[in-house]
Amino acid sequence: MNSVIFLGTPQFGATVLEGLIEAGYDVKAVVTQPDKKVGRKQKIVFSPVKDVALEHGLPLYQPVRLSRSAELADLMALEADFIITAAFGQFLPTKFLKTAKIAAVNVHGSLLPKYRGGAPIQYAVRNGDAQTGVTIMEMVKEMDAGDMYAQAALPIRDDETSGEVFSELAPLGRDLLLQTLPKIARGEIVKKPQDPSQVVFSPTISKAEERISLKMTATEAKNLIRALNPDPGAYLMIKGQRLKVWKAEVAPDNSSLPAGHLLTNQGRFAISFADNTVLNLLNVQPTGKKAMPIKDFLNGQGKKFAAGEKIVDED
C-alpha cells in the first residue's frame, strides 16, 4: 500500500486519517497544530488528529510553523508517495509538496472554485447555500488553487449548523479520498483546472463578523447564528450586555417596528430586524452563564424587557 504523510487538525481531519489507517495506507508521519490551552484553568487540549495519531502509535509532529521548523527536513526525507492534508490550517512549503512521489493532495470542504480559504463551510451556511461538498485537489503554492481530481456534493438543510455540516462532510471527504487515491496512483484521473471567473474566497471569520447586525434580515441573522455554531458563536448586544445566540428561527409574522425592538417576551423572545422581518431567539447564553432554552432565560431575565422597547444596541 502507498505511503502517506498526513496533515490535519480538527475532527474533519481525524475522520480522514482514520479512513487512511483502516484502508491500510502506510502513514509515515502525522502533522497537526500545537496543543492549545482552553478555558479558565488553561487545560491543555490535544487536537482530534493528535488523538488518532497517539492511539495508533504514529510518528507525530507539531510545529508552530512548518515552513520554518526543524521538523520540515525530517518530513521531506520521508519521500512519501502522497502528502495529504485535511483542514490542517497552515500553508505548506512548495519544496515539501514536491517531495511527494505521486501527488500532494488536499481534501477541501467546498465545491471549488467556490469558497477557497479557511472557512468554506461557515460561508456556505452563512450565505444560505442549498448545498456544499468536498473537493479532492492537487496542492499548489496558491491557496486552494490546484487542479481538481474529484468532487462530491452534500445538501444543506435550512436548520443545519456548521458543526452538523462538518460532521456530514467528514465521512464524505474520507470516502471520496479513498476512492480517488488509487486512481491517481494508477494515472487514471485527468485533473480538471478551476475556472478563475468562478472563484469565491472564504477567509477566516473575524471577531467583528460575530456580531449580529441590525442591518440584517431575520433570515440573514439566523444564517449567521447557524454558521458560527458551535464555534465561536454569534451574539447580540442587548442593553450593553453580550448575549450569544445559539439557535433562532424566522418568525412567520412581520413587524412595523424599526430593527432592534422587542415584539414580545410572552411565550417567545421576538426581535424585529431589517425589512420588517422578525427573529425568534430559541437558545441563548448570557455572559458568564451556560447556554439555555429561551424559556429559562425569560424566566430569569424576561421582566427586564418590555414589548415595543428597543433592546438591541446599534452596531
Would you mind describing this structure in some detail?
The protein has 315 residues and is α/β, with parallel strands linked by helices. It has two domains: 3-201, 3-Layer(aba) Sandwich (Rossmann fold), CATH 3.40.50; 209-304, Formyl transferase, C-terminal domain (Methionyl-tRNA Fmet Formyltransferase, Chain A, domain 2, Roll). Helix content is 26%, strand content 27%. It has helices at residues 11-22, 48-55, 71-78, 94-97, 120-126, 162-185, 218-227, 294-301; strands at 3-8, 26-31, 36-38, 43-45, 60-61, 82-86, 103-108, 114-116, 131-138, 148-155, 200-201, 234-238, 241-250, 262-264, 269-272, 278-286, 292-293. The protein has a seven-stranded mixed sheet with strand order 5-2-1-6-7-9-10, with helices on both faces. Strands 12, 13, 14, 15, 16 and 17 form a six-stranded antiparallel sheet that branches. α1 runs parallel beside α2, α1 runs parallel beside α6 and α5 (120-126) packs antiparallel against α7 (218-227). The longest helix is centred in the middle third of the chain and has 24 residues, at 162-185. The mean pLDDT is 96.
